[in-house]
Amino acid sequence: MITYESVTKIFGTGRDAVTALDNVSFTIPKGEIVVFLGPSGCGKTTTLRLTNRLETLTRGNITIEDQNIMDMDVVELRQRLGYVIQAIGLFPNKTIAENIAVVPKLLGWDKKRIWERVDELLRMTNLEPELYRDRFPAELSGGQQQRVGVARGLAADPDILLMDEPFGAIDPINREQIQNEFLKLQAKLKKTIAFVSHDIHEAIKMGDHIALFDRGRLIQYETPEVILTQPKNKFVADFVGADRALKVLGLMKVSDVINRKPKNILRGEDDAREALKFLDEKGFRYGIVIEQDRPIGYVNQKMLKYESGPVREFVEPFPLFLKERTSLRDVLSFMLMYDEVTLCAVDEDGRFGGTVTYNDIQKVVRESYADEAESREDEVSP
Amino acid sequence: MLDNSAQVFFLSWEHIWIVGLSLLIATPIGVPLGILITRHEQFASRVLGGANILMTVPSIALFGLMLPILSVFDMGLGKVPAVIALVLYSQLPIIRNTYTAIRNVPPSLVDAARGMGMDKWKRLREVEIPLATPVIIAGLRTAAVMNIGIAAIAAYIGSGGLGVYIQQGIERVYPEMILSGAILVSILAVIVDGAMAALEKAVTPEGIKVQRRLMR
Amino acid sequence: MNRLLGKLNRLIIASIILIAGVTAERTGLIEYLSDPYEYPVLFELFLQHLYIVTVSMTFATIIGIVAGIILTRQRFRRYAGVCMYIIGLGQTIPSLAVLALAMSFLGIGTRPAIFALTIYSILPIARNTLAGITAVPASLIDAGRGMGMPPLRILMEVEIPNAMQVILTGFRVALIINIGTAALSYVIGAGGLGDLIFTGISLMQTEKLLAGAIPVTLLALTADFLSELLGLLLVSKGLRLSD
């Protein structure tokens, strides 16, 4: 756990003095990723570098597990923390294995333990040890290099990792992959991580909490959901983007809104006229047609009028089926693409799980923004 | 030193003459060679290597080697071998700087020039050489300062110049003479270095100067 | 590696040319060399030459590298420009003058020669050390510091290895100039192969001259080649890969 108390950092003196951080206070809970987010020059990187004393505090305190960092030997402190930077910073004169082994060597681990750990880390970051350990950084691609960078940061098994835009130098395609891999790793390791980023998407994806900075001040410190649904002021609202409703949907899954027992179910073998009567009586505009526990499509009243025979002959098939873990944002995207207001979710065997309608989605967004809408009626743009 | 001002001038003049002549000959050899190897890369390593070897040979040894060869023409001693040796020595800095300078012209510019329809020679004249000139001059500057130093040694094979003061000063155990020789040569070197630096600056296209200033 | 092979190639060719050139003088030279009186003298002068070069280079390398490193340290960084300028000025003074001045203060013999050679050889080494270390990307130093590497460790494991190529070039340049200048030191009484060269010139004895000039040249070329070899040893493979 890392605590920042009234942290202030001023560069320079007199007229040229620049206040990089102004009275910043917050806590990073143990085992969580907190993303330091904000535009250039907002102080997010400075906050990170103050944590391992690469910069010196002007005022305030930073404590790690209740120990003030100023009370620790600076070299020991840094060896205790993992540090991963955007420029990757792998030493070109050392092999991959030697690069990873730097901190363990400093800590005095014995050789056997070090090389075992190196192999272990390489495997963790999806780099085959036999192939990579004796290579040099110049032989690796950017994505591979950064994986080694992460491995190097984790080498001494620190409880805390400091990461400064670690995936910034990687192309977008590889970046997504390495982000996913990292999240999987974190799920296993549960490190306490301070992660600097300027990308709102990355922050939402990676962060358990987001600390949003602007010009040296901490503006909002909340979970991604809250920052998206309850931005504190115009700056935050602008930073997260006008499409934040869609971003929020990105955080939600089908399973959050699924209706498992919709009332307008028809069976494939039902007679068309019976089905029509059923829909009419209940006031349903359309019905979901299920056969042998699997959805085959939908019918509406118009399609059944004047028809006779089993319903299955008049069915309009669904363009696709959803999975329970599909994000609502993707669901909305499909609905728009195929001009459908209802889609069905199925399990691995194709069996019917439930429905998601456009209204369901709209309702959940409305509920999230209910508070915001009430309190900032005049600020919300039409 | 001041007593012999006439002699000082004479020897200084001799010295400048030797160095100047050598550069005058070396440049029209070195620069075109440098340009040539940018056009025919396959010779680059050999030419540069050859020039490198020339410079590796210790100056006095080169002078020495000139002796038997030129004695055939009865020109073993004196200014001729000195100038020839200096010409050979200056080749490396001149060729190398020319080569590097032209190669360092951003390829995008060369491409743009090509696209605009400039043929090889026009490109050379209008784009590559103007941009490469400062570095070429820097090479000349290195060669000049180097040659001033080596020319002092050439006194030992009878070429005259300020090295004579040093040589005579050692032989006659006359420290003031040695000093005057040393100081004069050094002053000459510093002046020439400064002058060449100014020339370098003067030749740098205004645009590049601005670019450099903005990059700081 | 290619560069090394190329150099070896050229070294061989140059040696052949030299030897071929000698063939014209062969009668004089071979006789001279096989003369039982002269041969040991040649050998002794060669060793003397080697001695002066080795001693002065050792001093110059240590002083040069240390000076270069010191000037890159945080505290002394602002003096770097001034220091380099002063040392640079020293190099504009022609080698002969430096030797002569050393003689004025330290007398004749090998001592002033070694002194002068050391001073003369410091600049390329110091300047390249300074440039090489300064050129190490700041992100590497930052990564090192951030990981908790003590400053000495960073110097030894990051800065110097990454600057080695440049430092070695400075060393090589210094060495070659040193060998050439050592030949001059004859004039202040330090012996060495210059003895043969200068005597050969004044007495117009070509064989003596060549007996001095050729070994010196070969020595310089060999030193050049060996320096490249040294590079293979000292420069990490990881750095050479980007060539």
What does this structure look like?
The complex is a heterotrimer of chains A (382), B (216) and C (243). Chain A is of the alpha/beta class. Chain A folds into two domains: 2-241, Rossmann fold (3-Layer(aba) Sandwich), CATH 3.40.50.300; 255-362, Roll (CBS-domain). Chain A has 17 helices and 15 strands. In chain A, helix 5 crosses helix 7. Chain A is elongated and about 85 Å long. Chain B is mainly α. Chain B contains nine helices and no strands. The longest helix of chain B has 35 residues, at 5-39. Chain B is globular. Chain B starts with a helix and ends with a helix. Chain C is mostly helical and 243 residues long. The model of chain C has no long low-confidence stretch (mean pLDDT 83). The chains are: A alpha/beta (382), B mainly alpha (216), C mainly alpha (243). Chains in contact: A-C, B-C. Chains B and C meet through helix 2, helix 3, helix 6, helix 7 and helix 8 of B and helix 1, helix 5, helix 8, helix 9 and helix 10 of C.
Short description:
The complex is a heterotrimer of chains A (382), B (216) and C (243). Chain A has 382 residues and is of the alpha/beta class. Chain A is built from 17 helices and 15 strands.
Note the main attributes of this structure:
heterotrimer, A: about 375 residues, alpha/beta, Rossmann fold, CBS-domain, 6-stranded mixed β-sheet, 4-stranded antiparallel β-sheet, 17 helices, about 25% strand, disordered C terminus, B: about 220 residues, mainly alpha, MetI-like fold, globular
Broad shape of chain C: globular
Largest sheet descriptor of chain C: none
Spans of chain C of 5+ residues with little confidence (pLDDT < 50)? Answer: none
The count of domains of chain A is: 2
Q: Give the CATH topology of chain C.
A: MetI-like fold
CATH class of chain C reads Mainly Alpha
Q: Radius of gyration of chain C from the CA trace? A: 21 Å
Helix and strand layout, with pairings?
The complex is a heterotrimer of chains A (382), B (216) and C (243).
Chain A: E1 2-11, E2 18-28, E3 33-37, H1 44-51, E4 59-64, E5 67-68, H2 74-80, E6 81-85, H3 96-100, H4 102-107, H5 111-124, H6 129-132, H7 142-154, E7 160-164, H8 172-189, E8 192-197, H9 200-206, E9 209-214, E10 217-222, H10 224-229, H11 234-240, H12 244-251, H13 254-257, E11 265-267, H14 272-282, E12 286-291, E13 294-300, H15 301-304, H16 328-338, E14 342-346, E15 352-357, H17 358-375
Helix pairs in contact in A: 5-7
Chain B: H1 5-39, H2 44-56, H3 59-71, H4 79-103, H5 107-115, H6 120-154, H7 163-171, H8 175-203, H9 206-215
Chain C: H1 2-23, H2 26-34, H3 38-70, H4 80-92, H5 95-106, H6 110-134, H7 138-147, H8 151-184, H9 194-203, H10 206-234, H11 237-240
